[in-house]
Amino acid sequence: MKKFKTLVLFATLGICLAACGKNTNDDLLSYTTSEAEGFQTLQIDDKVFVPFTLVTPADCGNQVGIAGNDSKDKIYEYKDFSSNEWIIEYYESGEMDVPMLYREQNVDDIPDGISSDYEWNNTSKNESCTSEYPMLIMVNDVVYKNTGYICSAVSCGTMDGTIDKTLDSKDTPTENNQSNFGTGYNYQYSTEGQIVVDIDGEKYIFRDSKLTDSSIPIEVANFTATIKEVRNDGQLLVTFVDMDDMFVSLADGDYIVDGSTLETDFSEGDSVRIWFDGSVEEVLPAILPNVYKIELDN
Q: Signal peptide: which range, if any (predicted)?
C-alpha cells in the first residue's frame, strides 16, 4: 500500500508540473492595436510599438502575448531582446505568413544587422545618416544631396574619388571632395546630375542639389510582378515577372513585400512594378524588407 501511495504522489506531481509548463492564454499579455497615420501600432500599458521591418519565424523567441484578442495574432519576443523594447507580431493563418518586427517608439538603440525604411523609424547607428540636416558632398564644383535611395545597378568597381575634407553637418560644402558628414567615403560618377557614394557598404545615390527632380533614380532596383495574394495586414505576396538587365535579376518565384504603408489599394491579379533597395531575405517565400514604392504597371 505504501508503494502504491508513493506512485500516486509522483504521478500527481508529474501532472502538476506538466500543467505549469504549458503556455495558456491566461499567461499571455493582451496587446491592443490601432491605426496611426496609415500604419498599425501595438500598445500595452504605456508602451507603443511601431512596425520596423519584416523578419523570419526563426527570429521569434517565446510567445508573450496576443493582439486584438485574436489567438492567431501572436506576439513574440525578438531573439533575446527585451519585450519592453522589441516584439514580433506573427499572425499565423497557415498560409505563408511573415512576422513583423515592432520597435517601442522611444527605443533608438537598433540591433546590428537590421534596418528600416519606414519614415517613423528615423534612428540609425550610422551617425552620418541621422543628422537633421541633408547629407551633402561637393564634386567638380557641384553640390550633391543624398536622395536616400540605394544604387543596385551593375557597374564597374572603380571609384572616381574620395571625400577627404569635412565640415559641420549644418553647413554646405564649398570645396571639392568635401562633405558635411565625414571623410573617407568613396564616390563614383553616375548618370547626369548624380553620383553614388559608398557609405558603410551601402551605395547611396546623391543628386545635384539644384535639381528639383524628386523621382526615383533609374539605378534603383525595380521589377514587374503579379500580385498573388493581398493579406489583411497589408503584406503582398507577389510573383516575379521581369527585371531590367542593368540589375542582378531576382530568381523566379514568389516574394513577400510590405504594402501596409502605401496609399494605393491593390487586388489579386494586378500587374505592378516594385522599387526596392536590392536586399532579399532568403526564406520561403523570400522577403523584400525595404520597398520604396509599388505602383500599378499598365
A: 1-21
